[in-house]
Design a protein that fits this description.
Layout: E1 11-12, H1 19-23, E2 27-28, E3 32-37, H2 43-54, E4 61-65, H3 71-78, E5 93-97, H4 99-121, E6 125-129, H5 131-138, H6 142-158, E7 162-168, H7 178-182, E8 185-194, E9 197-207, E10 217-222, E11 225-229, E12 248-249, H8 254-259, E13 264-265, E14 269-274, H9 280-293, E15 298-302, H10 307-315, H11 322-327, E16 330-334, H12 342-356, E17 360-364, H13 366-372, H14 375-378, H15 381-394, E18 398-404, E19 425-434, E20 437-447, E21 457-462, E22 465-471, E23 475-476, E24 484-485
Parallel strand pairs: 3-7, 3-8, 4-5, 4-6, 6-7, 14-18, 14-19, 15-16, 15-17, 17-18
Antiparallel strand pairs: 1-2, 8-9, 9-10, 10-11, 12-13, 19-20, 20-21, 21-22, 23-24
């Protein structure tokens, strides 16, 4: 058989954002599919999204309900979703209740009724909800059930209909189930509670004729219905960084750009690490502001304050972020639902990149990012963050992430997540005590694509932002936080002021 002789199978869009990519391009036309999962996991909503996306007057959808909720009650709630199109009811989509047929005539009656309706309407899509109810009520042997499923599948395939059987199953029922054996596709929806967070995931257990993305994928139910987030989102088609000297992006502080060898190489991932109050977020804001002033749109993902608060704080340092937010050159994404997934964040960022054309991204901060995740996702935070950084830098986005680290007087920590190896460049900020004063120093720890300054320079946080000072030449052991004078003497300490009673 040559490639020209092969039967071409069309792929139908599911109507669920992100799910087509997970399936490998959509659902095979005329396939016999099962949507399984526990109550409330989104099975019916997924089926409705599919029929509203594909049903036409010429190739309508028939939705059979069996001992489940009445069609009127179902539609009352389903019409709250934005995908619901009232004009398609009765013209492109019909709902038929088979509850009485099952009670009176069993499996044979169900099969006969479906056959009659399908032959009369020639539908393009057929849904049986809930199929599990049919099997339970019929109380037939496993052989009879398998025969029924095979006859139903053969009937609908001969009429060239794409079919869905919806059932409330648990994992333990997956093994040796005759229904699953004859299915072309099996989509399993999961819903779990992790502490106070609800996490929904889906898995393509089986899909004949095409390669789907393996593993568990997060999804969320929104006012638009289901939205899926592939665990490999953004990894496909990764581009290698161009050889040779990369374009340098300014941090907005000339002296710091000089320390970085001319700025951050475009497409790099930069980590700014420091303790609370060292100016991590301010440096990130100046980086975004510098890009906007040079005509480079930016994105900021914040997890600890809202967009308007972020812009207001920037204005206290003379940085105008409100204007670029209004004109579309800056997108500030606020993400803090407490049951977030990294893949969902990735989707939000990719959509913002498409709308703004941004080449600069700030993640402020990684600690806030982790706290916004559902507990189960926190265990995979480092792996997920790697996929996210890998994907975004591949398309030329320069990422600046901030991370808070505790000050230590015995070592210089870069991150509490052991992710320093994921980043191309690292800037370390820290507090030091000199002459009875708390002062701040900055150092460039690492740059993968170029030389950088080895100086430890003092800086101040002023009303104009971060202002760089000179290199502290007279002190050693600065990175410990307790520097010593080069001549070996201890730093001068200011004499305590006499108390009022002693004056």
């Amino acid at each position: 058989m040559t490639s020209q002789d092969r039967v071409k199978i069309n792929r139908l869009p599911t109507g669920v954002p992100g799910l087509d990519d997970i399936l490998g391009g959509g659902l095979p036309e005329f396939s016999f599919n099962i949507i399984a999962g526990v109550p409330g996991s989104g099975k019916t909503t997924l089926a409705h999204q599919f029929i509203f996306a594909n049903a036409t007057p010429e190739r309508p959808a028939i939705y059979f309900t069996v001992l489940g909720e009445p069609a009127l009650k179902m539609l009352r709630y389903q019409q709250q979703y934005t995908f619901f199109d009232l004009s398609k009811l009765n013209r492109s989509i019909r709902f038929i209740n088979l509850s009485q047929v099952l009670l009176d005539r069993g499996l044979a009656g169900i099969l006969q009724e479906i056959s009659t309706e399908v032959e009369a309407a020639s539908p393009g899509i057929v849904v049986v909800d809930s199929f599990r109810t049919v099997v339970r009520k019929a109380d037939n042997s496993e052989v009879e059930i398998q025969a029924f499923v095979q006859e139903l599948g053969l009937l609908l395939t001969s009429w060239e209909a794409t079919t869905f059987l919806i059932g409330e199953y648990v994992d333990s029922e997956m093994r040796d189930n005759p229904v699953f054996t004859v299915a072309d596709g099996l989509l399993w929806l999961y819903q779990t509670v992790e502490r106070n967070s609800v996490v929904r995931k889906l898995q393509v257990m089986k899909l004949r004729g095409q390669a789907s993305v393996p593993g568990m994928h997060t999804f969320r139910i929104t006012d638009g219905g289901l939205q899926a987030f592939s665990r490999t989102l953004g990894l496909a088609g990764r581009k290698k960084k161009a050889a040779g000297a990369a374009k340098r992006l300014s941090m907005g502080i000339p002296e710091l750009d000089e320390m970085l060898g001319g700025g951050i190489p475009e497409g790099d991932s930069l980590l700014i690490a420091g303790s609370s109050g060292t100016g991590k977020s301010l440096l990130a804001t100046q980086f975004i502001d510098a890009g906007i002033r040079e005509g480079q749109p930016g994105i900021v993902a914040v997890f600890e304050e809202r967009p308007e608060e972020y812009a207001a704080r920037a204005s206290t340092f003379g940085l105008d972020l409100a204007t670029p937010m209004e004109d579309g050159n800056l997108k500030v994404i606020y993400l803090r639902p407490l049951d977030l997934s990294v893949d969902e964040t990735m989707q939000e960022i990719l959509e913002a990149i498409k709308t703004t054309g941004a080449k600069r991204l700030v993640l402020d901060s990684l600690a806030g990012f982790e706290m916004a995740l559902a507990p189960g996702f926190r265990t995979d935070f480092r792996e997920s963050l790697y996929r996210m950084i890998y994907s975004l830098t591949a398309i030329g986005v320069t990422i600046l992430s901030t991370v808070e680290v505790e000050e230590s007087f015995t070592e210089l920590l870069f991150s509490t997540y052991s992710i320093s190896f994921l980043t191309d460049d690292i800037i370390r900020l820290r507090n030091v005590e000199i002459d009875g004063q708390l002062r701040k120093v900055l150092m460039v720890i690492k740059m993968r694509r170029g030389a950088h300054s080895r100086d430890i320079r003092e800086y101040e946080i002023t009303s104009q932002g971060v202002v760089m000072g000179d290199r502290l030449k007279d002190y050693d052991h600065q990175i410990t936080g307790i520097p010593k004078r080069v001549d070996g003497s201890a730093p001068k300490k200011s004499s305590p002021r006499p108390r009022a009673a002693e004056r």
